[in-house]
Design a protein that fits this description.
Heat Shock Protein 90; 2 domains; six-stranded antiparallel sheet; five-stranded mixed sheet; 9 helices; 11 strands; 19% strand
């Protein structure tokens, strides 16, 4: 190959390439298989010895080798080039074709990558792949072992092929992003369902252990009162007093169960004052409160309130201290809630004791709540040095 056109001078080969590319696009929308298939089609149709397909990554600052003809196909996904680096990086950043006929290493744009065996090939042509909806998509390279003078027609045809491939790669990237979003959506749905089921189990346990047992006791007392109504009025009065006490307890239990779904205090006071009220209700621990008003969606308020509730209960159950701090502040687009104590602490890397939900399920529950509203939970603790729980969530 010295001065003649590539194989595109033959209309039949050009037509076969176009049909092959269309079939490749139709057969597999995944990016890497498409790029590798196209690389093989290009070398077969043009009579060149090697073809690389570089794709611009999602950051728009680097190229990744997405397709190559054997034996260099083993390097797919392993090679990255920042824009402006090497011939391919130069082509991408300038969006212009580049040709090196020989003496590649004398060209200031060339960068030798041993794994790509550049010294085994003498000549190369590199063209940008640009799609109208997506802009620059990547770079298409062809190489020949023997010296070849690429003609203007060669470059025009390679550029046309690059544009055709670019449209397909653009669609493949959209397909990949859509698939990733679907996977994320499925995972989110699974987390929501798991959290809902855990909440239902907790409420069922609360109702069973509290309201149901109280109702059974109330039934016994009322039966006893009815039997002794005429024979022992003093005993009857005593049973009725107990029944009234149990009734009040049941009302409290019912309110607590309902509050497990949506704390009314949030509607009445807002998050900041609700947290202050929560801190005052923790009788066993003196909680220092430093909170500010933050405008948050309802579901985020509930999540933060529940995280604070769980964290303070952990202080009561496990910290062995009478002091704790509760903070709520907003910094830019982030709101953070912090509950800290200087008590017993624990090793977060160690498994919780059997049957202990305070450092086991309690922590995972708080983390799930934070993640479900787009945030994250940090737990800082060590034995005898206290514990700090920090929930950071977006404000919008």
């Amino acid at each position: 190959m010295t001065g003649r056109d590539l194989g595109f001078a033959d209309p039949e080969r050009e037509r076969a390439l176009l049909i092959g590319i269309i079939e490749a696009i139709s057969a597999d929308p995944e990016l890497d298989p498409l790029a590798s298939h196209v690389a093989s089609l290009v070398t077969d149709a043009t009579g060149t010895d090697l073809c690389y397909v570089y794709v611009l990554d999602d950051s728009g600052r680097s190229l990744t080798l997405a397709g190559a003809t054997p034996p260099l196909d083993q390097e797919v996904g392993q090679i990255g080039l920042p824009l402006g680096t090497g011939v391919s990086g130069w082509v991408a950043s300038h969006q212009l074709p580049a040709v090196i006929t020989d003496q590649k290493e004398a060209d200031p744009r060339y960068r030798h990558l041993p794994q790509l065996r550049g010294r085994d090939f003498t000549s190369m042509a590199s063209v940008p792949m640009i799609s109208h909806p997506g802009g620059l998509v990547g770079v298409l390279n062809v190489h020949t072992r023997d010296r070849h003078e690429f003609t203007e027609r060669d470059l025009q045809l390679l550029t046309s092929i690059g544009s055709l491939i670019a449209g397909a790669i653009h669609q493949a990237r959209l397909h990949r992003r859509l698939a990733a979003r679907e996977r994320a959506s499925e995972q989110f749905a699974e987390q929501v369902i798991a959290a809902e089921e855990a909440e239902r189990r907790r409420l069922a346990s609360d109702i069973h252990d509290g309201i149901t047992q109280a109702l059974i006791s109330l039934s016994f007392h009322l039966d006893a009162a009815a039997s002794a109504l005429t024979e022992a009025p003093d005993f009857t009065a005593e049973q009725l007093v107990r029944a009234r006490t149990l009734t009040r307890l049941m009302l409290d239990e019912a309110r607590a169960a309902i509050n497990g779904l949506r704390p009314p205090v949030l509607d009445d006071l807002g998050l900041a004052d609700a947290l202050a009220s929560l801190a005052r209700s923790i009788g066993a621990v003196e909680v220092t409160v430093d909170v500010e008003d933050c405008q948050l969606p309802e579901h985020v308020e509930i999540a933060l309130y529940r995280i604070a509730q769980e964290a303070l209960q952990n202080v009561v159950k496990h910290a062995n201290t009478g002091q704790a701090t509760l903070e709520l502040h907003q910094t830019g687009t982030q709101v953070w809630l912090r509950v800290s104590d200087s008590g017993a602490g624990f090793d977060p890397a160690s498994p919780p004791p059997p049957g202990d939900s305070g450092t086991g399920y309690g922590m995972s529950s708080m983390a799930e709540r934070a993640e479900l509203v787009g945030g994250r939970l940090e737990v800082l603790s060590s034995p005898e040095r206290g514990t700090t729980v920090i929930a950071k969530v977006p404000s919008g």
